[in-house]
């Protein structure tokens, strides 16, 4: 009943007291509402409280928030980081094409993520482009 009215706090309190297994689903539902509203900070907080970092990663990818997705993978899903980096490379190439500007942008993104080896690879591609 509380969920259908969007009364998230009451639903959380009831779940904590009477049905702890339902709490994660409530948190995920609330997080989805935050994502749809564009409140990414709240979305991340709630998904992490529900201990579902993979859902967080997927939500960021679906919204094109690659830097957030890469950060989440690095912090919470390191076993998925390499595959996500490859997916991001493919996405950038597909959406921006391969030119010096897009390669430089991608290299700077890798630098900000601390992925210096990938950044250097991008800079070398600029020299070859």
> Would you tell me the structural class of the helices and strands?
mainly alpha
Terminal CA distance reads 59 Å
Major beta sheet, specifics? none
SS strand fraction: under 5%
Please, what is the average pLDDT? 83
Number of strands: 0
Low-confidence runs: none
If helices are DSSP runs of H or I spanning 4 or more residues, what is the number of helices? 8
Order of helices and strands: HHHHHHHH
Helix content: over 70%
Radius of gyration: 19 Å
Which of globular, elongated, flat, extended, rod-shaped describes the shape? Answer: elongated
What does this structure look like?
The chain is mainly alpha-helical and 129 residues long. It is built from 8 helices and no strands. It has helices at residues 8-18, 20-36, 40-49, 53-62, 66-76, 81-96, 100-112, 116-128. The chain is elongated, with a radius of gyration of 19 Å. The model has no long low-confidence stretch (mean pLDDT 83).
Short note summarizing the structure:
This protein is an all-alpha fold. It is 78% helix and 0% strand.
Give the topology.
Layout: H1 8-18, H2 20-36, H3 40-49, H4 53-62, H5 66-76, H6 81-96, H7 100-112, H8 116-128
Helix pairs in contact: 1-2, 2-3, 4-5, 5-6, 7-8
Which properties best describe this structure?
single chain, 129 residues, mainly alpha, 8 helices, elongated
């Amino acid at each position: 009943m509380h969920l259908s009215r969007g009364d998230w706090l009451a639903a959380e309190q009831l779940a904590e007291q009477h049905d702890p297994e339902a709490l994660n689903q409530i948190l995920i539902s609330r997080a989805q509402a935050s994502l749809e509203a564009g409140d990414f900070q709240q979305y991340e907080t709630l998904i992490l409280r529900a201990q579902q970092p993979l859902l967080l990663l997927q939500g960021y990818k679906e919204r094109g928030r690659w830097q957030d997705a890469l950060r989440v993978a690095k912090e919470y899903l390191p076993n998925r980081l390499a595959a996500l980096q490859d997916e991001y490379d493919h996405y950038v190439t597909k959406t921006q094409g391969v030119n010096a500007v897009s390669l430089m942008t991608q290299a700077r993104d890798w630098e900000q993520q601390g992925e210096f080896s990938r950044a250097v690879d991008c800079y070398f591609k600029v020299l070859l482009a």
